[in-house]
Amino acid sequence: MQSEERRILFITSFGHFMCHYNLLVFPALVLPLTGALKMDMAQVIQLSFLQYLLFGVSALPWGIVADRWGGRRLMVLMFLGSGLSGFAAAFWIEEPMGLWLALGGLGLFSGIYHPIGMGLISKGVKRLSMGMGYNAMFGGLGLVVAPVATGIVNWAWGPRTAYLVVGAINLAAIALPAFLPLAQPQHKDQSPAKPGNGLLGAFIILLMANMLGGMAYTGSTVILPAYLELKSQTLLQALSALLNRDISSNLFATTVAGAIYLVGMFGQYVGGHAGERFDIRYAYLVFHVFCVPAALFMAFTQNLPLAAFGAVYFFFMLGMQAMENTLVAELAPRGLHHSAFGLKFILTFGVGALAVKILGWVDAVWGSAACFLALSINSVLLVGIIALLILRTNRSASLAPQTQEKNIFPITDISRIN
Q1: How far apart are CA 69 and CA 65, in angstroms?
Q2: DSSP readout, 372-397?
């Protein structure tokens, strides 16, 4: 890997870490905030809707700006805006409206990352699936660290300090984008693709899958820490008795959530390798197939079995991300990669933010366990759409995997179909 490629991966991977860390602080504070704000769980969850909405709907505008101006300045803006929004959330932590607005700002500026980071990798890293896989792992690391660190900080100093940490880390990272190479190495044909032979239709189908995948990601990560806290009381009591001391239920739940996300991070590594070794479309399908029973069992289990099925669910749900982003890069016009990823993430996280509203309603009417029944149904629909994507792309071009030196199988380069 060239030094320019390593720099791109280092900086984009740290940005990916912070992007998800910023958003995953709130789910770890849902139950503590119910007491501080004197609101029920469903109402507190709704406070994050603007955060997830702006995180998604801003992706396309950020991507369009990046295609014109490049990604360096926008990465600086991401860290600056996220840092200031983190401090605002700390200031308004006991004011529902102020916290709602501050979380919205955090979502807006964190939304810069995906179209910028994914675009930089897709244009500047030769081993695309592996590059996406390593980058996804750092996003997964953000999922791991955020609930654990937030649980510890909340236990020691309270929710306000958790957002002060968000602000401080983001502001400290402002200098990093200066180390991005001025011109990214180019490894692929630079002429924009002209979608044809069903590829435009395939890209639209893929975007539908992205939307449902975003609902799965947003919904499951928002509810998981609180769900574990409610459903793992027996395990918590057994651990407290074993250690002969009281343990904070929130700290316990956020630590278990972090362990589950750590398994998901390993899934992202496996997914990056699977995208190189196998037909990426079928690997993408298989990973989502495993999500269906895992989410279903999470609805009916508690304590240790719940954590085990949660680990299975997040292994596959997070593990497919490198494959999904590689598919976007292969099907999108080459000269519009920032915009294409912006469109993808406006659906993944913008429309995906509806999961916050849907699961809040499901929780209020049927209880928290029903939320994972809804996520299982979502995965069934997703599998059907991916099967349709495979049928559509079979008519036009093979998406066979690639190695560093050459293709394992004969392949039609999608970017050259016209």
Answers
A1: 6
A2: HHHHHHHHHHHHHHHHHHHHHHHTT-
**What does the block give as tokens for 401?**
């995997």
Query: In terms of DSSP H, where are the helices of 232-347?
Result: 233-243, 249-277, 280-298, 303-319, 321-331, 337-345
124 HSE (CA, 13 A, CB side): 26
pLDDT of residue 348: 81
pLDDT of residue 195: 39
Residue position matching structure tokens 């991070």: 265
| pLDDT for 178 | 72
Q: What amino acid is encoded at 34 in this protein?
A: T
Of 341, 356, 354, whose CA–CA distance to 58 is shortest?
341
Domain-located, residue 186: no
State the Cα–Cα distance between residues 266 and 274, nearest whole angstrom: 12
DSSP character string of 3-39: HHHHHHHHHHHHHHHHHHHHHHHHHHTHHHHHHHHT-
Backbone angles phi, psi at 407, to 5 degrees: -70, 140
How far apart, in Å, are the Cα atoms of 369 and each of 64, 306, 357, 359, 373? Answer: 40, 11, 16, 10, 7
Low-confidence ranges of the chain (pLDDT < 50): 182, 188-198, 398-418
Per the listing, tokens 């999608």 go with 414
Of 147, 135, 178, residue with least CA distance to 22: 147
Query: Tokens for 316?
Result: 């596959």
Token digits of residue 99: 């916290």
Contact 219, 370 (CB under 8 A): no
Please give the residue range of the domain that contains residue 82. 3-181+191-416
Cα 59 → chain centroid: 13
If we measure between CA atoms, which residue out of 63, 201, 163 comes closest to residue 123? 63
d(CA 221, CA 219): 6
CB atoms < 10 A from the CB of 209, how many?
26
Structural domains of the chain, count: 1
Beta-bridged to residue 402, according to DSSP, are 407
- What CATH number is attached to the domain comprising 8? 1.20.1250.20
* pLDDT reported for residue 197: 37
300 contacts 193 by C-beta, under 8 angstroms: no
Position 336 scores a pLDDT of: 66
pLDDT, tens digit (0-9, with 9 covering 90-100), for 64-109: 887 777 677 888 899 999 999 999 999 999 999 999 999 999 999 9
Please give the DSSP secondary-structure letter assigned to residue 349. Answer: I
Summarised one tens digit per residue, pLDDT across range 179-194 is: 665 455 555 444 333 4
pLDDT at res. 410: 31
